[in-house]
Amino acid sequence: MNQLKVALADDEPLARARLGRLLREGGCEVLAELADGPAVLEWLKKSPEVDGLFLDIQMPGISGLEVMAELVDGQTCPPVVFVTAFSEHAVRAFEASATDYLLKPVSAERLEKALSRLRQGHIPKRTGGELKTAMGVAPRFPIKAGEGHVFLELKRTTHFEVEEEVVYAWAPVGGKLTRQRTDWTSLSEVEEAFPTAGLVRIQRHLLLRPEAVLGLRAIEGGRAAVRVAEGADLEVSRSVTPRLKEMLGL
Question: What pLDDT score does 247 carry?
Answer without folding.
Answer: 82
